[in-house]
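Work Package 4 report. The design task specified in the project plan requires that, given a folded chain encoded as structure tokens, an amino acid be chosen for each position. We show below one input record used in the internal validation round.
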């Protein structure tokens, strides 16, 4: 009952607002009527543009070409060639970047591999030499036939004393014969 008492006052307030809004040109949504007409016109323009874009898309996809003139077909062909050229340029750019990244990765992995080989070879050498006694050194020198110098096959440079690479073997190197005593001295230097 108490709420019914305020109902006529609320209705009068709403009526006053609607009459003022109508006088100012405001629609029920709170948007001025002239702006609403402008938005409706803009919506129609956008709908037309969307339709033209859809027709253009269908033509670029090879659909609905029956109604096209020779000039229109030539224009479509030129647009497709330009698009294809742009795609190829972008593809080549991406491929070159990928190749550069792979080359850098290959270089880094090669360096890491070389370090690992070196550390592994050194570890093998240390482990092998830790248990070598004088008799074993003589045996090694005998097995090498007194060959304590290593000659690189292509450069013909000699490495001495025996290095880790020489002891674990490398196809790039061959042994040059020297005395068994020299081999023993070189191994003791290590």
């Amino acid at each position: 009952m108490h709420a019914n008492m305020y109902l006529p006052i609320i209705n009068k307030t709403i009526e006053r607002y609607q009459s003022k809004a109508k006088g100012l040109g405001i629609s029920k949504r709170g948007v001025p009527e002239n702006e609403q007409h402008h938005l409706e016109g803009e919506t129609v323009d956008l709908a037309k543009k969307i339709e033209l874009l859809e027709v253009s898309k269908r033509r670029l996809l090879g659909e609905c070409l029956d109604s096209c003139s020779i000039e229109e077909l030539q224009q479509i062909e030129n647009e497709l060639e330009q698009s294809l050229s742009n795609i190829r340029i972008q593809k080549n750019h991406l491929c070159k970047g990928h190749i550069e990244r792979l080359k850098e990765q290959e270089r880094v992995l090669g360096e890491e591999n070389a370090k690992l080989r070196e550390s592994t070879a050194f570890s093998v050498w240390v482990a092998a030499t830790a248990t070598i006694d004088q008799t074993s050194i003589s045996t090694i020198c005998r097995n090498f036939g007194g060959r304590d110098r290593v000659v690189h096959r292509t450069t013909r440079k000699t490495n001495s004393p025996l290095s880790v690479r020489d002891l674990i073997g490398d196809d790039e190197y061959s042994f040059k014969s020297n005395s068994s005593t020299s081999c023993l001295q070189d191994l003791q230097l290590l």
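The longest helix spans residues 70-130. Validation will be extended to a larger panel in the next phase.
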